[in-house]
Amino acid sequence: MTATPSRLVLDDHALDLLELALGGAVAHADLVRALDADISPGTVLTDAENTPLATWDGSTLTPDRPFAVEPTPVWDPRLRRPAHEVRAQYAQTPHTAVVLDGPPTWDERRVVTGLATERAVILVVPVTRGAGQAQANATCRAAMALAADVDGSVDVLVLPSPTRRQDGGKGGEDILAGYGLTRVVDADEARSAETREALTTLSARRDTLVTDLYPPASAQELLAATTPSASAGTVVLFTGLSGSGKSTIARALASRLESDGRTVTLLDGDVVRQHLSAGLGFSQHDRALNLERIGYVASLVATHGGTAIAAPIAPFAASRASIRDMAVAAGAQFVLVHVDTSLEVCEARDRKGLYAKARAGEIPDFTGISSPYETPTDADLTIDAGTTDVADAVELVRDALSRP
């Protein structure tokens, strides 16, 4: 009998480190030490959906599958290049990296324009998985516009930026060096004292101007109207069999909507089960209660102008209708997305072996095998993730959200 290889599920921080390691910016052994886990040869490193990304053989990592990407600028492969490729490009070229902490100001533009007359300039946008994606996407778009406007060689590079320092005290400078970028200017260094002060007081000065120009009641109305939480938001509920692809589409949609400027809360099924619904099982009663809690939290998010995205299996029509009712009662837009991937495809892509265990009777009440799935008759959108790629699926949902 062949032994089943051990698996280690990586959090967002570790996934950033793994991407850097596979791209050549971080030594493989340094990554393994930073994970602070017992990793034996043959261990498979996976993401939260148990997708195998790399295998550790005791000394090096071998990539298994590409990372999941999203249809946003920070995932554009032309910008998010591996370290070995960047090193090779600039090994013999005089260059300076300008690290941006937001859309470049006039001060950064002047610095970049001056540098580009004599050397290549790389506008670096650090990006952390799961945090600040809207800001990073905005910075990417502004950086690309600046690169197109300036005469000379100006490139944009998206660089994974782990949330915690690496083992051994390695930080941002070490990662930049791993990309071959040793001459570096931080955006803050390029700014005058006046610009830095203006940026730190930008929001306060806006509010002050409004209160100076308008009577109190008018100012209150104007500030409320220009605050994203001033109106009810949106609830997007994905439903489908285990392995249908709904969680992957939901995560990509969340990133895309954040890039659009929305405030997004992703109600991940495993996280909800761990915290909000800890102690619940998978009986019909417990599943209904879990979905009621998801619907309640989603409606609260929408009440305050946010977009809530949830991707449980949600097998029962009554529970889905209850979530719709809660969203509508909150004044929110509600979109039900049925990810209608066939059972055969779901079983074929099952990396956790859940379907095999269910068919063997080891998992009771498993949707599609020993528990029913009630196919929606009221879905606002139906997607077959077996024939539709993630980027196209995200655009289909965005189109549905734009309908009145």
UniProtKB/TrEMBL annotation:
Domain APS kinase: 233-384
GO biological process: sulfate assimilation via adenylyl sulfate reduction; sulfate assimilation, phosphoadenylyl sulfate reduction by phosphoadenylyl-sulfate reductase (thioredoxin)
Any one GO cellular component localisation term in the record: cytoplasm
Reactions listed under catalytic activity: adenosine 5'-phosphosulfate + ATP = 3'-phosphoadenylyl sulfate + ADP + H(+)
A Pfam family that the UniProt record links to this protein: APS_kinase
InterPro entries, per database record: APS, APS_kinase_dom, P-loop_NTPase, Sulf_AdTrans/APS_kinase
Keywords on record: ATP-binding, Nucleotide-binding, Nucleotidyltransferase, Transferase
EC number: 2.7.1.25
GO molecular function: adenylylsulfate kinase activity; ATP binding; sulfate adenylyltransferase (ATP) activity
NCBIfam families hit by this protein: apsK, PRK03846.1
Name of the protein this chain belongs to: adenylyl-sulfate kinase
